[in-house]
Design brief:
CATH topology of one domain: Rossmann fold
CATH class of one domain: Alpha Beta
Oligomer: single chain
Largest sheet: 6 strands, mixed
GO molecular function, one term: threonine synthase activity
Radius of gyration: 20 Å
Keywords: Amino-acid biosynthesis, Lyase, Pyridoxal phosphate, Threonine biosynthesis
Family: Belongs to the threonine synthase family.
CATH architecture of one domain: 3-Layer(aba) Sandwich
Enzyme class: lyase
InterPro entries: Ser/Thr_deHydtase_PyrdxlP-BS, Thr_synth_N, Thr_synth_N_sf, Thr_synthase-like, Threonine_Synthase, TrpB-like_PALP, TrpB-like_PALP_sf
Bound molecules: pyridoxal-5'-phosphate, ligand LJ64HWYM
Strand order of the largest sheet: 4-5-15-10-11-14
Shape: globular
Amino acid sequence: MKYISTRGAAPILSFEEAMLSGLARDGGLYLPESIPTLSHGDIAALSGLPYEEIAFRIMRPFIGETFTDDEFAEIIAKAYAGFGHDARAPLVQLAENHFLLELFHGPTLAFKDFAMQLIGQLFEASLKRSGNRVTIVGATSGDTGSAAIEAFRGLEAVDVFILYPHGRVSEVQRRQMTTPSESNVHTLAMDGHFDDCQARVKDMFNDFDFRDGVRLAGVNSINWARVLAQVVYYFSSAVSLGAPHRKVSFTVPTGNFGDIFAGYIAKRMGLPIEQLVVATNQNDILHRCLATGDYRPDGVIPSISPSMDIQVSSNFERALFYAYGGDGAAISALMDELKEGGFKVSQGAREALSETFNSGRVSEEDTLATIRNTFARTGELLCPHSAVGVQVANAQRIGHTPMITLATAHPAKFPDAVKSASGVHPALPPRMADLFDRDERVTRIGNDLGAIETLIRERIAL
Ligand SMILES: Cc1ncc(COP(=O)(O)O)c(C=O)c1O
Ligand SMILES: N[C@@H](CCOP(=O)(O)O)C(=O)O
């Protein structure tokens, strides 16, 4: 299996190379040259299998020669061993034909653990074999950072630097990132918002002296391996509701478009998905773009679902690549226009996107009301991101096709919003009960590429 860039002008790579490099050298994102499909029978055969076995069958064709079957099976087993639920991604029924896919039973209580725990194992195995070291740099609005730190803390061949927007993550998220004491973990609180953090990470990838000098690697969802690992739970949940014999739809709380793009890949692999619904908070650029074709970031507004406070949505580039028929030059031109303020999606590409994607936006008040009402009706305590998803799904007027809404984080990561909506203070799991007593270690830094690169060079030279 080979990987190509969405902008068509970067070297073609193997799975291992694409995983270790993150962003392509032409600024694009890697995608498989072709998408393997599963037959009706292959999908039906997934029903009732353990999550790890489904993960193996879905991801194996994308991995190529990088790992043997035995090695890959062992990597998957280790990745999910620390999850706090036997099903890994259990489904809970909220209403007739509306289900919640709980993706928050991993070590850091967010869906990011599904990919990050796997990537941690994949990096470790690959770097052990090659004897190389890498410097991972990631941007986070709260959850990617804690998941990455958890997956890479203490690994000898890796230094991990996480940039988060100072003052714009929840206290639990911040403490998850600032309390690990391992010397290979470097948490940086940057001035600005998430888009600024992500822009500086991309700048570092586009500064080839720096990139090659520190052996830069990325674990944001610009990394194809992140997306791939998330494809699995679309299959596991859909087959448990009767796929491939019946269709399913998904509503996905969305920011960087990585999670919902994994659903798109599942659909292209043959999973009968009727609709993929993008659910946004007031940072609604994706909702506006799907409705009007206009993609024009206009500033990040802080919200009670801070992990979705994103306006430059990296993985939308991958969806556009397919909507433009794989035309890398067209994508490159759009991304140049984005640097100047925004772009208009062509009519043909809009039609292609609307064949799969639908969207909705939720206000702050409706997010709180959804937490309150869902708790009162079902006893399920939603985090504010999951509540955005549930509210958008409810507005779709769910019919005969089951709707699965992704619950992307545990309510205890956002106790203030959850308590104000429901009156209940969501407790952290016992293994995290002392999170607020642990010492914090964080470096404040400006939104300044030179200063960040200097800090990274100095830290890894120690
Ligand atoms: C809790 C939570 N929900 C939803 C999202 C949005 O996911 P994506 O960025 O893959 O669209 C994020 C961040 O990515 C998140 O942390
Ligand atoms: N919501 C994310 C933002 C980064 O997204 P990623 O999926 O591209 O890593 C976060 O919580 O950090």
